[in-house]
């Protein structure tokens, strides 16, 4: 039997409410059937003169990263909502991100980028949140090019984030975690999200200790993502599970979240496989913890009613 799109959506809502397994639509897009999810981490971009890439951007060829393709993936895999993270290809120009938020209301939250070294960084944040963005991402590098994270001007930007009641998201190596401790101390009402477990290398206990030390702050959350990058093994990346378990034990399931990081490095794991990691592969989550990882924690940080 071949379902129409309307019939599938009607049956899907009823099935989710009843806890049933959904039928699979006959489409070209790969599909999995599993618990509903909210994806905490996805990038989108498109080659379009309305949304030019930043000068010198290293945009990979042959990848369809459009929001329309993402929506098809989401529908086929029962992903209710997705947090779009501004891709570095556009740098501080968040117009494509905002365009996606406006064209598909209710489907996305959006995390913008601003120039952290600009004097008007706080004003940039005000502007992009007024356009619909739900937070900001900073990415201090490990070398001295990322030393701006230590400068006093960071307090103004973090303070603006706190006043706007939007999360501060950090893509940073574990070596930078001590640099953000004073900022977290000073802004304890601000929700802070650490991307990709701070990319702690597997087996690096000193780096992991820096991350686990942030569990003392009740408003710090961690994305247990990038397993495909951190692991020395192929899918399902079992050598990373011990680190995930330690992060879960320190922060609790209510402060950790899964995410696909689509379409980055899909040769290591497909969108469907990345969802399956949190739905079924990581073995030690109980049923309630799995709900936190799949959607409840993301909903706490980026509520659909924001």
Overview of this structure, please?
The chain is an alpha/beta fold and 306 residues long. It has a single domain (33-301), classed as TIM Barrel. The chain contains eleven helices and eight strands. It has helices spanning 5-18, 67-76, 95-103, 121-130, 153-164, 177-186, 205-212, 227-230, 241-251, 271-281, 287-301; strands spanning 37-42, 79-85, 108-111, 136-138, 168-170, 192-194, 220-223, 256-257. The chain has a five-stranded parallel beta sheet. Strands 1-2-3 form a three-stranded parallel beta sheet. Helix 4 runs parallel beside helix 5 (153-164).
Helix content: 25-40%
Characterize the largest beta sheet: strand count, sense, and whether it forms a barrel. Answer: 5 strands, parallel
Strand portion, in percent?
5-15%
- Domain count: the total is 1
Q: How is the largest sheet built, in terms of strand order? A: 4-5-6-7-8
Q: In DSSP terms, counting alpha (H) and pi (I) runs of 4 or more, how many helices?
A: 11
């Amino acid at each position: 039997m071949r379902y129409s799109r309307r019939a599938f959506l009607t049956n899907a809502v009823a099935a989710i409410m009843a806890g049933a397994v959904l039928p699979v639509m006959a489409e070209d897009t790969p599909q999995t059937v599993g618990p509903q999810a909210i994806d905490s981490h996805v990038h989108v971009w498109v080659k379009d003169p309305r949304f030019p890439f930043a000068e010198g951007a290293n945009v990979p060829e042959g990848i369809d990263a459009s929001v329309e393709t993402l929506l098809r993936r989401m529908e086929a895999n029962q992903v209710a909502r997705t947090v779009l993270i501004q891709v570095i290809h556009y740098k501080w120009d968040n117009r494509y991100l905002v365009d996606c938020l406006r064209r598909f209301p209710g489907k996305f939250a959006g995390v913008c980028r601003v120039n952290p070294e600009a004097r008007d960084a706080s004003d940039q944040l005000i502007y992009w949140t007024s356009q619909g963005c739900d937070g900001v991402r900073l990415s201090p590098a490990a070398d001295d090019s990322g030393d701006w994270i230590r400068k006093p001007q960071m307090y103004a930007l973090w303070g603006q984030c706190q006043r706007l009641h939007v999360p501060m998201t950090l893509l940073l190596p574990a070596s930078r975690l001590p640099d953000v401790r004073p900022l977290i101390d000073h802004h304890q009402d601000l929700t802070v999200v650490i991307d990709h477990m701070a990319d702690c290398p597997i087996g690096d206990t000193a780096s992991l200790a820096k991350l686990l030390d942030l569990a003392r702050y009740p408003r710090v959350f961690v994305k247990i993502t990038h397993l495909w990058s951190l692991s020395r093994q192929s899918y399902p990346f079992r050598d990373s599970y011990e680190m995930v378990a330690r992060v879960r034990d320190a922060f609790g399931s209510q402060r950790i979240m899964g995410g696909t990081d689509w379409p980055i490095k899909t040769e290591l794991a497909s969108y469907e496989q990345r969802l399956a990691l949190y739905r079924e592969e990581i073995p030690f989550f109980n049923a309630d913890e799995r709900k936190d990882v799949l959607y409840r924690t993301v909903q706490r940080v980026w509520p659909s009613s924001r």
